[in-house]
Specification:
mainly alpha, 3 helices, 2 strands
Length: 155
């Protein structure tokens, strides 16, 4: 949303609440998933732990990225100078100067720079999760598919 104020903060808080609700519902659904009668409980634990770990890391990646964006917004606001000051060069001539500094400008610049690290870490974690998930899905698919030896392998 354009601008600043409660519309932006409210949207961020609502998105955070929805992410937490979806996270809890997905983990609850996975934990309460029915098992076939021939499968034992200990054999399903690793799959359920993997699902829980994947969704937890996905929420952490989104949270770190959002925190970085928040720090960018706060850091950018803190480095802004606003105000009007009139400097007199001579008795007839003056020039205006904008010079009002935020109270936390010393902290705002490091926050603004740390934002890049946080957003980079969040996106890197999300990309790593995507690559690892695709690798695991491919490995599972190739391990369960029947292997057909090619006729040229015997030569």
């Amino acid at each position: 949303m354009a601008g600043a104020g409660w519309p932006n903060h409210l949207a961020t808080l609502l998105t955070l609440a929805v992410a937490i609700a979806v996270f809890v519902l997905v983990l609850r659904h996975d934990a309460n998933r029915a098992m076939p009668a021939q499968v034992t409980v200990p054999s399903t634990a690793p799959a359920r732990q993997t699902t829980a770990r994947l969704f937890t890391l996905l929420v952490v990646a989104g949270g770190i990225t959002t925190l970085g964006a928040l720090w960018l917004h706060v850091g950018s606001s803190g480095t802004t100078l606003v105000g009007l000051d009139e400097r007199w060069v001579s008795a007839e001539q003056s020039f205006p100067q904008l010079t009002i500094d935020g109270e936390y400008s010393a902290l705002a610049r490091p926050m603004k720079m740390a934002d890049y690290v946080l957003q980079g870490a969040g996106v890197a974690l999300a990309l790593r999760l995507a690559v690892d998930t695709l690798r695991a899905a491919y490995a599972t698919r190739t391990a369960t598919s029947p292997r057909v030896d090619s006729p040229t392998a015997a030569r």
